[in-house]
Write a structure and sequence with these properties.
Blueprint: E1 10-11, H1 23-34, E2 40-47, E3 53-60, H2 66-84, H3 91-97, E4 104-107, H4 110-118, E5 122-126, E6 132-135, H5 165-175, E7 181-188, E8 194-201, H6 207-219, H7 228-234, E9 247-249, H8 252-260, E10 264-268, E11 274-277, H9 281-284, H10 295-325, H11 332-341, H12 349-369, H13 372-392, H14 398-413, H15 417-437, H16 439-455, E12 457-458, E13 461-462, H17 508-511
Parallel strand pairs: 1-4
Antiparallel strand pairs: 2-3, 3-5, 4-6, 5-6, 7-8, 8-10, 9-11, 10-11, 12-13
Helix pairs in contact: 5-8, 10-14, 10-15, 12-13, 12-14, 12-15, 15-16
Length: 512
């Protein structure tokens, strides 16, 4: 944290070899450590005075704003001494009296110097000084702030995270203007040296959860972290667990809302996806837009999502089970219609469904990998052409095309991409059970999934809470959304200290 006063900050936390007071020795050591680097800019010059002092400036081209170099480094060092009529020879004097940048620091070890240099900062070595001056004058190009393509909303903020971690922290600070908002920095990756920030509200989040997040981060020993997905897999409660126990999002408003509930957020430099923990399965079915719309409308949308979830995971299995084993459950007129549509189809219902589901998944993946304008056309036209051709050739029935299409559309309704992917994967074993055991197999498979999900925990929070175990007072914000004037408390299993969200008497309902 930097205050208005300019304090000398010597980095002593990074142990290692100390810098030499002789510039030539430092240059030899620098050449040994870095070797040939075509994108490194080097400049030797002399600090003006009666006895000019030799200095060496170096930085990575493309990461530093060249316009700032002359303004805050070269011009002051080469002219300020003459103006003041005195010689500045030490790094301390230059730091205190010459440099005009608030982002300048003194480092004394090679480990810290190389880390700051490779992070894109400007480095200055001065003859006769066993300390280097580093200046944060980074000016690399970054992507502009825009609406996240994976989480669009009709009503709500239109900004999304970018690949620059400082921009991301700024967007959270703009929303949560509290001294309790803490952001602690960690460095992960022996080669990438990626900055990771843990954000939480100290007066709301559970201290045990915050400590556990930090502990797991410190235990990660890996050569590189290029995206938050690297860390997400280390945070899984169980190996090969298909259910996401960490929420990934590109929306800063969703992260801010999670912090206000007592959750912990993880920001990773180089990716627009933030991680939020702990999460429950029902929070994956909720969108940030739910809390911006009217409570009745948001509740209706949540019920539609739950219905779509059941359609997406059960519809093909129910169709296979009923048409294969339980034809007596279908009205006679519908049975006749199904038999006529399946006339000439050489495959059983399970093989028919499996072929269509795999075909649709291939089309979906192909549409994602192709350029966006072409991908949409391939997905839509491919599904129409292949479906029509398959029906005309007698490979599948018309009813199966309808079932697969409804299943795919229902899957798109689920807000979380990770949760939607899990539903897509679980659909296939349920189809196999329905083809072998009928509705009994569907019930057995669904019961197995529920038992497994109920046994999961996300940083100590039951995965199916507040349904299992049932938490009194919170069930009204799961399948439906209670109005804001009735949200007096934060989630009891997530918030740690300050659980009060709304003071009683602040709504017209309480006063009247």
């Amino acid at each position: 944290m930097r205050f208005l006063s300019r304090r000398r900050k010597e980095k002593t936390a990074a142990p290692g070899e100390k810098l030499s007071s002789r510039l030539e020795d430092n240059l030899v050591r620098l050449n040994q450590r870095l070797g040939s680097m075509a994108d490194v800019v080097q400049r030797e010059f002399y600090i003006a005075g009666d006895k000019p002092v030799k200095a060496f400036l170096f930085y990575i081209d493309g990461l530093v704003n060249r316009g700032l170099i002359d303004e805050i480094i070269l011009k002051p060092l080469m002219e300020e001494s003459l103006k003041r009529g005195r010689q500045f020879r030490s790094a301390d004097e230059i730091y205190y009296h010459i440099l005009s940048s608030t982002d300048a620091e003194l480092v004394t070890t090679w480990a810290e110097l190389l880390h700051r240099f490779l992070s894109g900062e400007l480095c200055l070595l001065i003859d006769g000084n066993a300390a280097a001056i580093v200046v944060d004058a980074r000016g690399e190009q970054v992507r502009g702030i825009e609406e996240p393509p994976t989480e669009p909303v009709i009503r709500g903020p239109r900004d999304g995270f970018t690949e620059n971690i400082r921009i991301n922290t700024m967007m959270i600070r703009r929303r949560v203007k509290s001294e309790h908002l803490k952001m602690e920095s960690f460095i992960l990756g022996e080669l990438t040296r990626t900055e990771v920030i843990v954000a939480y509200l100290a007066n709301v989040a559970q201290p045990d959860v915050v400590a556990e997040v930090k502990k797991r981060l410190q235990e990660i020993k890996i050569d590189g972290v290029l995206e938050s997905g690297y860390i997400e897999e280390f945070f899984c409660e169980r190996p090969f667990c298909p259910f996401p126990t960490v929420l990934s999002t590109e929306r800063p408003d969703r992260v801010a809302a999670a912090l206000l509930e007592g959750r912990v957020a993880l920001l990773v430099d180089g990716t627009p996806f933030a991680l939020v923990m702990p999460v429950t399965f029902f929070s994956l079915l909720q969108a940030s837009e739910d809390y911006y719309n009217n409570a009745c409308y948001a509740s209706a949308l949540r019920l539609i999502r739950l219905l779509a979830l059941n359609f997406s995971i059960l519809l093909p299995s129910l169709y296979i089970a009923i048409t294969t084993f339980h034809q007596e459950m279908i009205p006679t007129s519908l049975v006749v219609s199904l038999i006529s549509s399946r006339e000439g189809v050489p495959f059983p219902a399970f093989v028919e469904a499996l072929l269509m589901e795999i075909t649709f998944e291939v089309l979906r993946e192909g549409g994602v990998r192709l350029p966006r304008p072409v991908g949409h056309a391939v997905s839509i036209v491919g599904a129409l052409v292949i479906g029509q051709a398959a029906v005309a050739a007698g490979l599948v029935s018309t009813a199966m095309i309808i079932v697969v299409a409804l299943t795919a559309i229902a899957n798109f309704v689920i807000p979380s991409f990770e949760a939607a992917t899990v539903v897509r994967l679980l659909r296939f074993p349920l189809m196999a059970l329905s083809a072998s055991l009928g509705l009994y197999g569907v019930g057995l498979g669904l019961l197995t999934i529920l038992i497994y999900a109920a046994s999961l925990r996300s940083f100590g929070v039951p995965y199916l809470s507040p349904m299992a175990p049932a938490v009194a007072g919170e069930l009204s914000d799961v399948m439906v959304r209670r109005p804001w004037y009735l949200m007096f408390f934060r989630p009891k299993l997530i918030a740690g200290k300050d659980v009060q969200r709304l003071e009683k008497g602040s709504s017209e309902l309480d006063r009247g």
